[in-house]
Amino acid sequence: MGKIDDKKKKFKGKKKVKNVLEKKAKGLKLNKIDRKRIVKIEEKAALKSQVNKAVKEALEKQVKNSSTSIFDNDGTRDSLCSESSFGSQPAPKKKSKKVLFSGELEHVKVFDKRVHDLQIEPSKASPGRGILRSPLDKKVKKLPKTVKVADEEESVAPPKKKLKVSTKKAVVAEPAEEDNLESVDEQTGADESLVDVPKLKRKRTPIQVTKSVKEQLLNMPRKERKQFLRELKLKRKPEGERAQKCKVLWEKIRMGKTPKSEKDEAIHELYGLVKGHASKLIYAHDTSRVIECLVATEREGIINNLFNELTPEIVRMSKNVYSKFFVKKMLKNGTKEQRDLIINAFRGHAPTLLRIKHAAEVLEYAYNDFANAHQRYNIITEFYGKEFILFREDNIRSLTEILAEKPEKKTVILKHLDEIIGAVNEKETLRLSILHKLMLDFFENCDEEKKVNLLDSLKDKIPEFIHTPDGARLAIKLIWFAPVKERKLIVKNFKDLSVKAAMEHYGHRVLQALFDTVDDTVLLNKVIVSELANEMKKLIEDDWGEKVIHYLVHPRDARGIDKREIAFLAEGDSNPHSKKTQADRYGQLYAAITENLYPYLAANFEELVFEANKHKFVAACLETTSSYDLFDRQVPSEARKSCNEAIVELAKKDFVPMDQEGFHIIEHPSGNFVLSAIMRCDSALPEDERLSVALAEGLTKQQIGSWVTCNRGCHILLKMLQVGGPKVVEKLKASINRKHLDGYTSKGANHLKAQLDGKITK
After folding, report:
1. Structure confidence by residue, pLDDT tens digits, 138-171
2. Where do the Pumilio repeats lie (predicted)?
3. Which end of the chain is more exposed for a tag (fewer CB within 10 A), N or C?
């Protein structure tokens, strides 16, 4: 404690400075960085002083060269004398006139800083509010400037915003509601800077009119002018008044507190307004939602009538950012006939729709979620050329089969596919399953040069399209085709995405292909396997994530993945760029996952076996190497012992046959399966790693002897007698009460009696 107090006293009086200049002034020690900062600060200060001095000199020179009178801040002209000719009273100041436009617009002058010696006279136009005033002028504030000349202090008019009026066409804005607006005063100095006008968040849309109309507006009274502008707006938006009424009714319908009777009336009134005008209202951001509201009412008559009215607009609506939602709602909630009508409307337009962002989204929604196999085939074949649009086939065939029958069309079809892929694979449409199907067909049938070009364009984007079956299949084939350098780049692109890919229905297959193909296991462990190991709980609880971990433990194991997937992955074994043997590659990947896998199993053994239903996965992880394994897989000794200890702790619980609160591990189906599977491997393990030995040493005789009351418990005891050593056999014989055992006639009890009597051999 004494040393700590001394340190506190030592640093108690340390000087604190705000910046390096204060540090220099106090004489503190400066390092190299501090000295550089001081030099920069001094250079900036010197430059600033020079600029200020030059500006001051320029202003003084301008004032001296000006006329004998100058304008005050309020726009009036005062004499240079301090007193007027009427005595000691100051001369009365004239009020400034609020003028925006003169009678003749061609005489309006645009002021510029470069113009000198201006002759400025006050405007003679009648005062009043101008209709061309921008809403931004409300925020203009006068900023007075003072310049000292000799012993007198004169005020200079504040700088103003530039005002430029074209003689051909003017922009007219709506008049503001406030009457007391500040007018734009006369310009007083060509050399003064302009005022920075703050930008408003919302600007009014200007209405463009000709010069004659603008002059007519200038001579109109305020009320007539507002009415005239309102009529101009209505001409520009003829459905504006109808849209406003629709939105009022829409708000009434969507409110929860509206009574049902009023809501029904509002729905019928709203449909009456929309009927016959839906094709014009559907494309606006607000009225499109009104029509969607009518669809959401689930009234078949209204929905069918709206759909029939908008049927000719299906393709156009699919291209619009707002109306596309109506098409998607009809695909989701419409009848089968309406869906077929929408999908048939896309005939001949699929290549065009895929190039447009919003239309591609609608086409994908119809193709992926609602189209049947024949409709999907018709959509895909449209990308093969115009011939397939005009002449559709009844039989569904792949592109390989089509080219095998008509090889002369290969060049034309692949050219069409190359164009559409090159046009859209740089956009957001890369995630669409239609494009994945087209790219897969193209890759499987093009020549070597085209494959290289496709690989170059997609090697950085593989994680973006592995969520579909065709996209995952294309990604796997690209990995097989890619050279070593490109494979490393593909692996690096999975950084921070490995866990998400492992939990994908189809994306997890791409990771399995990487484990089969990439020779750089150090990079794989660093980028992918380490991320998987850190999220062990999340992956094991997920069905697809469990398959990835199982593949690292048991690659190409039919218990973990389907046999058809194994056959497909085996196609990549013959690729020319993989040189490392499978045993070495799988062994190095397995060594990286064991550090996190087995501690997690030991810590969560009860949850995995009893609740998560992962008993097959646990048993597979603790098995010894078999003839079906592709490498010599050895569970670390300490990891196996920790798992055995976790099992012993579960087995120590009091055994109650058919316990309603929860089965004992001996009687639980999953627990009994795990015990049997692990004990089956005891004969190939050292004695200190055997589960049978751990159970015999960790349990009392009473605990072991109670298992004979259960059929499954008798089978576990039988297995321990068969695979355990002499110590285990001796412990079991001393624990089993033969008279108690003779009272049971289950199949397991009969086998156990025969084993104890020496009638059954191992």
Report:
1. 444 444 444 343 343 343 344 444 444 444 444 4
2. 309-344
3. N
